[in-house]
């Protein structure tokens, strides 16, 4: 009887996940197919999954029009910004989490609670003050305007701290008996053990920075310095939208994050349990 219940629950889970997968993948496939259609076909035929005439004009026009849509430049800008944000977030997050998890100092818990409370405020509240700060520092239209604000995420610190709390404190004590300093404990003992969760933080940060649209649309006005996501809005005219070209640009834009997920998915699944996998 117990095995039958487990079998039914597994089938229900399978059906539920299959439906969710279909809901997620059908719009993606439709976007891919639409990128091979002409604009006339897109507007006149209506909903049709496969193109009547397969064309590559949308991709060639998008990649060759470097004056109005410098896609390769946008692509490189996104790589620099997303990569720089990811590196900075990993450094700040790992050190902050180590301080909150391992070090003892006055006011640690109230400070951590205050840090978490900042997550209750919507990010849009920070846009005007943050823009004023960026213009004051002269960072508008530079990658720094996106790299440095990315390091302020409280959720990443919380995630790494929870992961770090599962590491037995006996490791620290043994290293301290051997004469290791706090920095050596972090670098030699803790850092290798928290690599799985750091991979997840890197994945989330890179993807969020790459897909960010609102903030770069505000802080970038130079067409040659903006990343690819806000750059795609230039493909849309004021009165007419070339949807197939927009779809071609969107497909090009998601390639790096798609490859990143394929490479890092095992680390993502490994760290979701928030445990290090050590016994003792």
From TrEMBL:
Pfam families: BPD_transp_1
Name of the featured protein: Sugar ABC transporter permease
Species in which this protein is naturally found: Ligilactobacillus pabuli
Keyword Signal: no
Domain ABC transmembrane type-1: 75-264
InterPro entries listed in its UniProt record: MetI-like, MetI-like_sf
Family: Belongs to the binding-protein-dependent transport system permease family.
Transmembrane feature ranges: 12-33, 74-99, 111-131, 143-164, 185-206, 243-264
UniProt keyword list: Cell membrane, Membrane, Transmembrane, Transmembrane helix, Transport
Topology class, membrane: Multi-pass membrane protein
Main localisation: membrane
Domain of life of the source: Bacteria
Subcellular location: Cell membrane
